[in-house]
Amino acid sequence: MSEQRLKTSIAILGCGEVGATLAYTLLQNPICSEVILVDPKKELLDAQVRDLGDATYGGRAATKIRAGTHQEAGQADVVVITAGAKQKPGESRLSLLSRNLHILSSIFTSMSPISPHTILLLVANPVDILTYFARKLSGLPESQVLGTGTSLDSARLRGVLAQKAEVSPSSIDAYVLGEHGDSQFVAWSNASIGSTPLRLALSAKLSDEFKADIESHTRGAAGAIIAAKGCTAYGIGNVAASICKYILFDSRTVRPLSFYQPELGCCLSMPAVIGRKGILRAMPIQLDEDEQKLLEDCAEGLRAVIEGAEKELKADDELRHALEKHA
Ligand SMILES: NC(=O)c1ccc[n+]([C@@H]2O[C@H](COP(=O)([O-])OP(=O)(O)OC[C@H]3O[C@@H](n4cnc5c(N)ncnc54)[C@H](O)[C@@H]3O)[C@@H](O)[C@H]2O)c1
């Protein structure tokens, strides 16, 4: 057995705010032999590896951290893609598309040939669109390409509902579904506290106004944090580390994640069972009529963006061929 196969490794592409926070979370809660960081900014990469390495000398460090190349990353058990531009205050996630799609496309060229067993976890935004294209560009089976999607929004939802109901967040079962972006929606019809439906558990409190307040809190959380500190990192670092754990431990945990929805023609978040092979299966959810409409509208918006992005990639290809011919 090769040296590499004896290790479990997680490669993180992009060691900016999110990548470094994820790496730190993985070092504090070890689940693999090594974390490999990759970033074209060499000085930043070296500094992050040294700084994070300093956090591993305390005696309980089981995970090593090192810098690596895209090629090495392509052989890791899990590759987390945080590489790309982030939103400026007030900017939407979709506005990052053109820049981050080009970065994504160059990443797959540099990682090739990617191991057929690798699981890809997309974090960079707009995460649903990038997950869709990662699936195409990587050549990996659909089940091995997933995006963090609305798992962070759902964690925020659990947090705010837990405060209102005065229970632990772990007792809340409620999902934000659809796009990790403006068209996301809360699946209120399925929400529960323990096994008690939310409408019984919160009864009088659960007005339309209450729901609208919570939805706007969940949808606007990232924007408010970015406006104040320029990025969000701890929440997504924690969520991404948990997903890596579900994968490597084959834990078969159910979470809303972004993955390909054949009947909707795009990637968006729906509940899924997560394990060593990625998305093991979709977990069916019965939405009410209004939620079903929101899901379809959300998919329609994402499909329109995908169509535009496909044209852009095709035009890039044509330009590259023309330049090669001319040279
Ligand atoms: N999905 C979510 O819930 C969520 C939450 C927070 C942030 N994000 C997204 O994560 C991304 C990263 O955010 P950040 O705050 O860490 O940004 P950042 O600017 O701090 O870091 C991005 C890093 O990616 C690197 N990079 C660029 N091209 C690369 C390549 N080809 N290979 C490897 N690395 C490359 C850059 O050099 C930079 O260091 C953004 O797109 C942001 O919107 C997503």
TrEMBL record:
One of the record's GO cellular component terms: cytoplasm
Binding-site positions, NAD(+): G14, C15, G16, E17, V18, G19, D39, N100, V123, A124, N125
Lineage, uppermost ranks: Eukaryota, Fungi, Dikarya, Ascomycota, Pezizomycotina
UniProt-recorded name of the protein: L-lactate dehydrogenase
Domain Lactate/malate dehydrogenase C-terminal: start-end pairs: 150-311
GO molecular function: L-lactate dehydrogenase (NAD+) activity
Active site, UniProt feature: H180 (proton acceptor)
The entry's keywords: NAD, Oxidoreductase
